[in-house]
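Work Package 4 report. The design task specified in the project plan requires that, given a folded chain encoded as C-alpha cells, an amino acid be chosen for each position. We show below one input record used in the internal validation round.
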C-alpha cells in the first residue's frame, strides 16, 4: 500500500504543484477518502510509519486516487505544446509545495535538489522513471517473498 501511495503522491506533487502550479488531486477530498492525514510523499518515513500508513489507508480509495492522479497527468501532458516542456523548476514552486506539507521536514533539501532542474526532466523522471523503479521494487519483493506474480 505504501509504495502505491508514495508513487501517487510524488506524481501528484511534482506534476501538479511544482511543474504546473496547479492544485493537487489530493486536495479534492482525498485525505478523507484515503482515511489518512499525511500530505507528504513519505520520503524518510520510518518502518513503523510505513506500516501504520499501509494498515490505515483505504486500499480501494488508494487505487482510485492513483487513477485520478494518472488521469490528471495525462490531461496536463496531453495539452502541452512545445514551449510547455521548456524552462527550469523555480525554488518558489518547491517552497510553496513544502509550505503545503508535501515534503514533511525535508523541504530545504528538496528545494536544493529540484531548483534549476529542467521541467521536462522532472516531469518525465517522476511520472515514468520513479514509478517504474518502485513498481519494479514491488514486483521483486512480491516474487522474492513467494507471493507469485499475479495481481
Amino acid at each position: 500500500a505504501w509504495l502505491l501511495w508514495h508513487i501517487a503522491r510524488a506524481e501528484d506533487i511534482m506534476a501538479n504543484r511544482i511543474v504546473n502550479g496547479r492544485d493537487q488531486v489530493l486536495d479534492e477530498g482525498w485525505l478523507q477518502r484515503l482515511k489518512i492525514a499525511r500530505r507528504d510523499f513519505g520520503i524518510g518515513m520510518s518502518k513503523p510509519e510505513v506500516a501504520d500508513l499501509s494498515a490505515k489507508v483505504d486500499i480501494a480509495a488508494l487505487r482510485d486516487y492513483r487513477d485520478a492522479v494518472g488521469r490528471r497527468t495525462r490531461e496536463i501532458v496531453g495539452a502541452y505544446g512545445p514551449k510547455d516542456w521548456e524552462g527550469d523548476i523555480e525554488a518558489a514552486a518547491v517552497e510553496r509545495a513544502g509550505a503545503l506539507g508535501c515534503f514533511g521536514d525535508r523541504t530545504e533539501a528538496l528545494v536544493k535538489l529540484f531548483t534549476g532542474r529542467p521541467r521536462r526532466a522532472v516531469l518525465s523522471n517522476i511520472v515514468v522513471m520513479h514509478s517504474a523503479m518502485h513498481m519494479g521494487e514491488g514486483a521483486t519483493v512480491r516474487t522474492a517473498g513467494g507471493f507469485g506474480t499475479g495481481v
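The longest helix spans residues 119-144. Validation will be extended to a larger panel in the next phase.
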